[in-house]
Design a protein that fits this description.
One of its GO terms (biological process) is cellular response to nitric oxide. This is Bifunctional diguanylate cyclase/phosphodiesterase. GO terms for molecular function: cyclic-guanylate-specific phosphodiesterase activity. The chain is of the alpha/beta class and about 280 residues long. It is built from twelve helices and nine strands. Strands 1-2-4-5-6-7-8-9 form an eight-stranded mixed β-barrel, surrounded by five helices. Strand 8, helix 11 and strand 9 form a beta-alpha-beta unit. Helix 5 (about 130-140) runs parallel beside helix 7. The longest helix is centred in the first third of the chain and has 34 residues, at about 1-35. The structure holds ligand C2E and calcium ion (CA) (3 copies). The site of one calcium ion (CA) has 4 residues, from loops.
Length: about 280
């Protein structure tokens, strides 16, 4: 029994070491990618459901690694968060996203708004509000052109540093969106205390809308909360017409998903915006 226990411990340690090695590998490769221009942004359209008008795009980070191929954000963002690299990464994304929006405007391409994901960590270590203000000024953008997507984790943080930045962003007129709304915590009181402008109905609620009465009830509740508080509710992960129809019925105004457009490079988005008429 003692021997089996030792083997088990050895096996466990080896598995842990492998996981750690992989994390360190990814971190090093990601650091290299960031400083050598190997990261890109893709942009996913956000549409008003009533008339399919484009209301903005969400910037999503894309990484193609020579050895690994395309690495999905769900694999490298957690590594970046643990290693602290996320601050530099998110700062780069914000900068690139603002530059891209300004470039589109310069070409008379009317992308009405840009949404950027910001990890909670960044609000603890950097001054996101000051960075956003500087970027908007540098690129000649208006505050209402920009929305920052943050998770509920940040909203429930008692630390004053993030809270002050959210206040400042709100005073400037930058949008604050609660990403993955409803998946993390049950407390809603922060919606009263913090200057939120948008709720994103998580795609886990949208997926089974057509078949699952509970998901319909939850989606309806989220949309109701949003409306009652004067917030925009954006449904994520809309893949089918059935889902879209139900969301419309439930009073949801804006949606994102493969039904309308996948995340795409800057040029592809312009092509998507100018369909050939026939
Ligand atoms: P998220 O912010 O919730 O982004 C939505 C995710 O849903 C994206 O995954 C998007 O590609 C995917 N998606 C969009 N439409 C559909 C659909 O119709 N069906 C399905 N099944 N999925 C859809 P992606 O691009 O893989 O990003 C995953 C997560 O990584 C994001 O979730 C976000 O939390 C994080 N992330 C991405 N870019 C950044 C970034 O620049 N900074 C930070 N901090 N996080 C990022
Ligand atoms: Ca997001
Ligand atoms: Ca989300
Ligand atoms: Ca997510």
């Amino acid at each position: 029994a003692k021997r089996a226990g030792r083997d088990c411990a050895r096996f466990f340690l080896r598995a842990m070491n492998q996981a750690l090695d992989e994390r360190l590998d990814i971190e090093a490769a990601l650091r290299h990618a960031l400083s050598n221009g190997l990261l890109q942004l893709h942009f996913q359209p956000k549409l008003r459901l009533s008339d399919r008008q484009l209301v903005g795009v969400e910037a999503l980070l894309r990484w193609h690694d020579a050895q690994r191929g395309w690495v999905p954000p769900d694999r490298f963002i957690p590594v970046a968060e643990e290693s602290g690299l996320i601050n530099a990464l998110d700062a780069w994304v914000l900068d690139q996203a603002c530059a891209q929006l300004a470039a589109w405007r310069a070409q008379a391409v009317n992308v009405p708004g840009m949404s950027v994901n910001v990890s909670p960590q960044r609000f603890h270590q950097d001054d996101v509000a000051a960075h956003a203000r500087a970027l908007l000024a540098r690129h000649g953008l208006a505050a209402r052109d920009l929305t920052l997507e943050v998770t509920e984790r940040l909203m429930l943080d008692d630390n004053s540093r993030p809270r002050e930045q959210l206040q400042q962003l709100n005073e400037m007129g930058v949008g604050v969106s609660v990403d993955d709304f409803g998946t993390g915590y049950s407390s809603l009181s922060y919606l009263k205390r913090l200057p939120v402008t948008e709720l994103k109905l998580d795609k886990s609620f949208v997926r089974d809308l057509a078949h699952d009465a509970d998901d319909r009830a939850l989606s309806s509740a989220v949309i109701g909360i949003g409306k009652a508080l004067g917030l925009t509710v954006v449904a994520e992960g809309v893949e089918t017409e059935g889902q879209r129809d139900i969301l419309l019925q439930l009073g949801c105004e804006v949606a994102q998903g493969w039904l309308f457009g996948k995340p795409m490079g800057a040029e592809a988005l312009v092509a998507w915006m100018t369909p050939t008429r026939r």
